[in-house]
Amino acid sequence: NRLETKSIQERTNQYSEAVSIFKKQPLWGVGPGMYTYAMYKNNSTLRSWDYQPIHNIYALMLVEVGIIGSLVYFFIWGWLIRRIWKNNILFFPVILTLLVTGLFEHWQWSLFTGVVMWWVVIGMSVSDSTST
Length: 132
Description:
Blueprint: H1 2-24, H2 35-42, H3 57-87, H4 92-101, H5 107-110, H6 112-126
Helix pairs in contact: 1-3, 4-6
């Protein structure tokens, strides 16, 4: 119970921190991969392990690349999802799982292995399953 309460409180604090960082540069964001540095600039009194990305790839993306970059990403993702739906529907549950997981974790956006895994799955899923 104590750890669950602490985890919920930390994640709630992450959202309020993300909002305060986003308000400083809403159009272009703080830059890809610069969220924790922006947190440090915003509040340099935290312990080193408290500087963590928000555990939501959509909020993290919005803060890092801003409104304009997020719109570009959402248009690309929309195109990819339509292509997957048209050409290779078997991958749709995999993509949907990744999209839902993104609401609760940041590794798909902030860690190299998560980004590589995401784009390998996208690459496999946009291929035309009817071609030989």
